[in-house]
Structures are given as C-alpha cells and as structure tokens.
Amino acid sequence: MAEHLGLHTVGDLLHHYPRRYAERGELTRLAELPLDEHVTVVARVHDARVHKFNHGRGQRLEVTLTDGSGRLQLVFFGRSVHYHQRQLLPGKRGMFAGKVGVFNRKLQLSHPDYKLLDEDSDAETVERFAGALLPLYPACKQLSSWNIEQSVATLLGALEATGWRGLADPLPERLREQRGLIALPEAFEKIHRPRSKADIAEARARLKWDEAFVLQTALARRRAKETELPAVPRRPRPGGLLEAFDERLPFTLTEGQRQVSGEIFADLATEHPMHRLLQGEVGSGKTMVALRAMLATVDAGGQAAMLAPTEVLAQQHHRSITEMMGELAEGGMLGGAEQGTKVVLLTGSMGAAARRRALLDLATGEAGIVVGTHALIEDKVTFHDLGLVVVDEQHRFGVEQRDALRSKGKQPPHLLVMTATPIPRTVAMTVFGDLETSVLDQLPAGRSPIATHVVPAKDKPHFLARAWERVREEAEAGHQAYVVCPRIGDEEEGQQPAKRSRAAGESLPQGGEDGEDGGADAEEKRPPLAVLDVAAQLAAGPLAGLRVEPLHGRMPPEAKDEVMRRFAAGEVDVLVATTVIEVGVNVPNATGMVIMDADRFGVSQLHQLRGRVGRGSAPGLCLLVTDMPPQSPARGRLEAVAATLDGFELSRIDLEQRREGDVLGQAQSGVRSSLRMLAVIEDEEIIAEARDEATALVAADPELTGHPELRTALDALLDAEREEYLDKG
To answer: What is the model's pLDDT at position 514?
Structure first.
C-alpha cells in the first residue's frame, strides 16, 4: 500500500475513499438482459459442466441459468472451477450479479458474484442483495479494489471495537451541529460501507467540510501571521509623481481601475505588507493599475520592482511603462521632469556595461522602478529601499523566486500579484487563500470584441484555405496577424521530425494529444506543427507576397526583440510564433490570429493567446485550427473557447476538465492532492462558508489552544514541505 498507493498510516487508508460505487443493478428478467451493463438476476441452475481446453491444461465451468423467461450462461475459469461446480448444483436457486457480455452469440456473465437462496428466502433478502452498493477504490495492478475493500473492512472493524479511540475530529462540535453534519466515525462508515445513496451523500457532505475547513484554517492563520509583520506604509504625496502621471493620461480610467487602485492604495498605506492578487481579463488594464501603485511607492520614497516571466515580456513592460510615463521616466536626465524617476530594465542577456549601470541605479536609489526577469533575484542585485514587488503572471514564478525577491527589502515589501488567467473565486480562495483578491472585469473603452471560430481542417479542408484568405484580407486592409504553432521545429537530431505539414491546405491526419482523444490510429499520428516549417510554407504558398517572419523562444534575445520591434512598427505582416507571445505582447494593429493544432493547447492558454488581437479599434478574429473529429473532448474544448469571451467561465470549464492540482503544494512535485473529496468548482458554497468560519475561529483563538484536534489535523495536512510552501507565500 505504501509503495504503490502512498498509503502509510491507518489515517491514509481511512481517507482513501471509493472512487465510485457499482450497483448490482435492479433485478432483471433473463429475457430482457441489456448488453454491457451490470445486472442482478434471480434464476435457477439448469445445468453445470466443466470443459477442458488448451490440450487439457485449461478448464472452464459453464453454468446455464433459467428463470422461465429466458436463458443465461455463467462462465468460471481457473482453479475455482470445481468449488463453483459443487455450489451450483442443478435445481439450486440464487441471485447472480455481473456484467452482461456475449460469447459465441450467447449472453453470459463471466465470474459473477452470487448468493444462493433457500427455498424460503424472502423478497427482502433478494432486494437487499440487488440494491447493495459496491465500493470501487482507486487501485493498482498490485492491489485490486477488492483487496483494498477487505483491508478497509478489517480497519473499520478494529476501530469500532476500540470505540474509535485516537480519531481526531477537526470540526468544532458547535459548527458540526449548526451545519447538521454527521459524526466523523459515522461518516467513515457510510463512505466505505454505504447502505444507500443517502448514506454516501451524508458522508460526502461531512468529509468535504472537514477538508475545506482545515485548509481554510491553515490559510487564515497564514493571513493572520502576515498582518503581524512590519512594513513601511507607502502613501503617495500630494503634487508628486502619481498626480503628474494621472494628469498626462490621454484617457480616463475605467470605474473598475479606479476602484481596484483604491483597494491597493489602502493596503499600501498600512503598516503590514500588502498581499493582493489582481485578476484582470486580458486587456483590462492591469499594467496601468500596477504602474500607478509603483508610482505611489516611489512618491513615498521607496522603489518598486516588476517581475516578468520572460525577457520578451520584461522588455515589452519596460517599453510600455516608459512610453506611458514620457519625461516622468527620465528622472535626473536632461529633459526629464523634475518629479520624475529612472525606470531601468534588468535581464540576463544585457551587456555588462548596461547591467553595471542598472545595478548602480538600483543600489543608489536613482532608479525608482525596475522591470526585469528572474535576473532581479540574483544575489548581486541590491536595492536602496524596496517597497513594492509586482509579480506578473504568478503561475510562472516559483514560490522560492518570489521569496528571494521579497527578502531584498529592509522590511518585507508590499506584494501585488497579477494574473490574466481568470481564476474562479473559490479557486482563488484556496490556491491564493493568503492573498486578498481584486478583479478587473471591465474592458477599457474603444476595445473591440474578438470573433472566434473553430476551423475543422480535416473534415473541411476548404475552411482552412478560407482562413488563409482571411489573413490576407486583414493584411491588405493594413492590419497584421499572428499564426501560433505548438513547436519550434529546430529540434535536435533523433527527435521525431515533422512530416510535411498541411499549412498550405493539404490534408494530414492527426492523432490525439498523448493519445487523449485517439482520433486517429497510432501510425497516423504526426508531431505537432512547427513554427519554422509553417512559416516557410505560408511564405511560399497561401501568404506569398506578404512579409512573414518566425518568432520563438530559442532565438537570441536581440533577434527576438528586433522581430517584435519590427512587428510592432508594422514592418512585418504575419508573425508565425510559439506561445512566447502568450503573455503581455501588445500590438494594437494586430487583428487576426490563427492557432494551428489548437487542440494541443489548454483552454486558458487559448484564451490568453486570443487576447493578443482586437487590442485596437478594429475587431479581432481568432481561428482555432484542428484535425480533431467533431465529437471528441478536444473539439468540445475548442467549441467552448469559441462560444464565450468570458475568461472566468472558461477557467471553470478548464478546471472541470483537468481536475485541480494540489492546492497546497506544487502539483509538479508529485505530492498527492491534499483535496481528496473537495472539488473547488462544485463546492463553492462550502469553501466560502468554511473560509468565513475559519477566519472567525482564528481571530478568536490564533494559536488554536482551545481546538487541539484541529491542530492535529493541521499538522497532518501541513507536513514540512507544505508548511514551507505556505510560509513562502
């Protein structure tokens, strides 16, 4: 159990819940047996015969049943044949349960469960057998669900015998009674040995509350600890940098931007570190809100650092911040505004001289704002007075990296985490439960809607040809387009080379991602389409005459920046790229996007990519090209993306399909999920209520001295690795 299922203790086994329950099925007449379904029949044994096969080495028992309406064959193999033959004598009546199969055009049950009935067995016995719910456990080759069920039964028996001694119940009695939840021993009994579906529902309700409550208590204690840390309050000064910046703005802030800025400024003014998550739809103006927070920090005498996940994005942020600030970004320089500050860029690929200059500006405090990649975290980087850290695209930064940057302040700096991946409220409450959340869901005025369509290249090749015509039409109207591919195409020798792609419209079959949707036979699978192949084919074929350029992560940084600069300047019509453009690339003149092999991207990734178009006044168009068949799950995902522009709705769909990773630890670390019963999407209400209850309880008793059993449950949940993960925020 320990080796194959990670079950080390009695508690682990108790919490190893059935994945589902098989019903033996309603009683079925033999004349009406449905194929491939689990059934229970009551019938008499007509005859039973052992047959030899494989030159006498193998034997099977065939039993014929009859109930007056029809006949059914049972078959048993292996050593147990003679045992069953002695039990199933002609004339015996019994209940038989199993899955209906067919062999030699006869219906049969293979190795069914059965229970023989006395002539005077009552109808109730029959009903009870037929209605039993059989728990099916997550199992493995070495341990069948049947073995696990037997182990759990032994364990429950032993626990009952001791009166469940040693079982810590994390839910305070008052809370359990208020919510009408059953006692913990009863919940374990009913989840593992239910007599009815109502038992399962009661047990699940109780066990979900335990999980939600313990998890939210861990997060509430973490938030409470944060409020005890000291931080320097940062209030913008009248007539300072922020006011000067606001006066320069050529547009008015949206209501949402004003409201979220207010929340952030209130946090910055307090004497403990801000921990805020800023969620905003693609293009909702998060960068503007973050920049105003950074300017307020500089006004208050501190420095602000913005961490971006890639060099392309760091350069882009640096460019857009300096453009938005104008002469305010040239503090201390000739022609700079007197209340301005310096905005520096720091990335790993900078030349030594530029890097030395940037490091000096940070150490002296000359630079109020720095934008960079994780190069900012290196030991060599020192700040004069780091007051605010803004992390862009949280999910791309390791906890350790954020922690290292935060340790650069004399006191813990304020932290603002931004994400354009919309996160449903309850997921934010669990995954980012230690952060307060602000949401920007209004698009700035003048933004255009984006039309999204699925292009089924395999069943309708003419749709793909039309897609390239649409790209050409956008270019001829003076606009630009992206073509996104899953692969670069310059893979090392020995990796599977791409077959000729059908970028120009030839048909080429495709199998599912990692066999997921199995749309084609294995030998028909091809590697995902690659940037370098597709760019060459488009330039020579359907987009001949247009300026087509590739962009991908393995290009030297200067070359990447040069291509991006030329695309932004309108000198490139079509950019064929990998997902390096997924986050933050802002070219208002780009109106079209074609995503090749779109089924190979996740739902939220497609939504992010799509957000790169329609950023100006002209409407955006996004075409999702796929070879997946109409009824496949992958095609369903794409239809969902095409059907809505609401990122929060899409993130729900995405989560429902993927199931949540480990909420407390990094999912990649292979730690089994701490959520065994709770599903963050389905159980929104429980999570929200548990959060309120946990917050109140921690406020009244921060050390949980009055709740020793809750402390025990927390210690079990927060092993050393997870405790550290939470501590690093």
So the answer is: 33
pLDDT tens digits, 327-358? 888 876 545 556 789 999 998 888 899 999 99
Cα–Cα dist 302/270, whole Å: 15
8 Å CB contact between 308 and 321: no
Tokens 């109106």 map to which residue? 591
Distance CA 227, CA 221 (A): 10
How many CB atoms are located within 10 Å of the residue 576 CB? 29
Q: Label residues 72-110 b or e (16+ Cβ within 10 Å = b).
A: bbbbbeeeebeebeeebeeebebbbbbbbeeeeeebbbe
Q: Which amino acid is at 568?
A: A
Confidence of residue 302 (pLDDT cuts 50, 70, 90): very high
Q: Are 286 and 418 in contact (CB under 8 A)?
A: yes
Which of helix, strand or coil describes residue 669? helix
3-state DSSP call for residue 5? helix
**What pLDDT is recorded for position 6?**
85
Question: Helix, strand, coil shares of the chain as percentages rounded to 5?
Answer: 40, 20, 40
13 — pLDDT class (breaks 50, 70, 90): very high
Distances (CA, A) of 677 to 211, 289, 549: 8, 38, 49
Pairwise CA distance, residues 652 & 680, whole Å = 10
Distance of CA 593 to the CA centre of its chain: 24
pTM of the predicted structure, to 2 decimals: 0.62
Distances (CA, A) of 682 to 241, 333, 656: 46, 56, 9
**Crossing angle, helix 311-325 and helix 557-568, to 10 degrees?**
50
Structure token pair of residue 603: 């739902």
How far is the CA of 708 from the CAs of 168, 600, 664, 699, 705, in angstroms?
9, 48, 22, 16, 6
Residue 726's contacts (CB-CB under 8 Å, 6 or more residues apart) are 218, 219, 222, 434, 664, 718
659: left (phi over 0), alpha (psi -120 to 50) or beta: left
Looking at residue 190, its amino acid is K
Burial of 599 (0-12, 13-18, 19+ CB in 10 A): buried
For 62-74, the DSSP string reads EEEEE-SS-EEEE
* 475 membership: H or E segment, kind and range: helix 461-476
- For residues 482 and 535, give the distance between their C-alpha atoms in angstroms, rounded to a whole number: 11
Could you report the per-residue pLDDT of 185-202, keeping only the tens digit for each?
999 999 999 988 999 999
Q: What is the pLDDT of residue 304?
A: 94
Tokens (6 digits) for 250:
């050529």
Query: Residue 333: what are its φ and ψ, rounded to 5°?
Result: -110, 160
CA–CA gap between residue 567 and residue 587 (Å, rounded) = 8
Residues 6+ apart with CB under 8 A from 585: 312, 313, 316, 564, 612
Look up residue 104 and give its two tokens. 């030699």
Sign of CA dihedral 682, 688, 691, 692: negative
Shortest CA distance to 193 belongs to which of 17, 9, 40? 17
According to DSSP, the residues that pair with 100 across neighbouring strands are 109
CA distance 724 to 729: 9
Tokens of 383: 């700040």
Task: Quickly count: other Cβ atoms within 10 Å of residue 44's Cβ.
Answer: 15
The CB density around residue 293, as the number of other CB atoms within 10 Å, is: 25
Query: Which pLDDT score is estimated for 504?
Result: 43
Widest pairwise Cα distance in the chain:
107
Please give the radius of gyration of the chain, using alpha carbons only, rounded to the nearest integer.
Answer: 32
* Beta strand ranges found along 333-479 (DSSP E): 342-346, 367-372, 386-392, 414-419, 436-440, 450-456
Residue 327 to residue 577: CA distance in whole angstroms: 34
